[in-house]
Specification:
Blueprint (H helix, E strand, L loop, with lengths): L1 E5 L3 H12 L3 E5 L2 H10 L1 E5 L2 E5 L2 E3 L8 E6 L6 H7 L4 E10 L28 H5 L5 E14 L2 E13 L7 H12 L3 E4 L3 H22 L3 H6 L1 H20 L8 H9 L7 H7 L6 H15 L4 H16 L4
Parallel strand pairs: 1-2, 1-6, 2-5, 3-9, 6-7, 7-8, 9-10
Antiparallel strand pairs: 3-4, 8-9
Helix pairs in contact: 6-8, 6-10, 6-12, 8-11, 8-12, 11-12
Amino acid sequence: MKVCIYGAGAIGGWIGSGLARAGCSVSVVARGATLQALQLHGLRLNQGGKVTAQAVASSAVPADLGVQDVVVLAVKAPSLPEVARHIAPLLGPNTLVLTAMNGVPWWFLQGFGGALAGQRLSSVDPSGELSQAIPAQHIVGCVVHVSCSLDEPGQVHHHFGNKLIIGEPSGEKTARVQQLAALLEKAGFEALVSDQIQKDIWFKLWGNMTVNPISALTGATTDLIMGDELVRGFISGVMLEAKEVGARIGITIDQRPEDRHAVTLKLGAFKTSMLQDVEAGKAVELDALVSAVRELGQLTGVPTPGTDALLGLARLHAKVHGLY
C-alpha cells in the first residue's frame, strides 16, 4: 500500500509513523528543515519517552513520489490552495484522500446537508479550486482525536489519544472505507467508521470554534479561558448559535455548552493549536473554524451575532499580525 503524507506536522507525522510501522510504503511531501530532517533521520516519533524512526521517501515535489493508494492530507486550511496546485501527480483514479484536518472542509456539503447538499462553501473554497483539484469521489473524511506536537522538524511527540473517525461524505459504509479502517487498526490506531462524518466534524468544531480563536486573541490557555465567567458565557452563546445552524442541516447535538466546558476544563493549562500557530507566526485557520459557521448560518437563516463578533475580532487581530 503506497501512502503519501501531505503535511508532515504533528498529526501527519503521527499517522505516517503508524502506517510505516504497519508495512505501508510511506512517502512525505515536505520542505525546508522538515525535508532535511526526514532525509537525515527518517520520520521520528516520541512516545512515552522512547523515540523510534521510520525510513520514508520524501520530496518537496509531489511528482517525484508518483501515484498513491492513499494521500493523508494533514495540512492547516490556509495551506490548501497551494496543495491544490501540486497534488495532481499523487492522484490516480482510485486514490483515497483522507482529510485529517480541523474545521469545516471544502467538501462538507457533498452528499449531505438537505436542501444545501452539493453547494460549495465560499468561505473555505472561494474560487472552487479545491473542489476541482481534489474531486469528491477521492474523499474520505477524518476526525482526529489525539494530542501531538513537534519536538523539532520531523519528530512528533505523542501526548494522549489514539482515535481516528473516518467516513465517506455520502455516509455509505463502502468497502474502501472499511478496508481503510482495517489498515488504520493494523497501524495501531483506534479507527471508527462513522455513519455520517459531517456530524463528527461538526461536533468537534462545536468545541474548538470558540476556544481556538479566543486563545489566539488573548494568548490564554484553556484553563484561563474557561475560568473567566464572562468569556465562558460568551462562548456558550456562540455554541448555541452553531448548535442551531447544525440542527438546520441535520446535525443534532444533544449536549449543552456546559457539558463541553467540563471536558475542556479537564485539559488543564492547554495551549490550543491556533495559539501555537500565532506564537509560531503561522497563518491561522479562521475560515474553516469560524467563517464557515457564519456562512452556514446565512444559508440556513440562523442569526449569528456572537459568531460574527468573534470572527471580526479574531480576523482583525490576525490581519494586524500578518497571519490572515
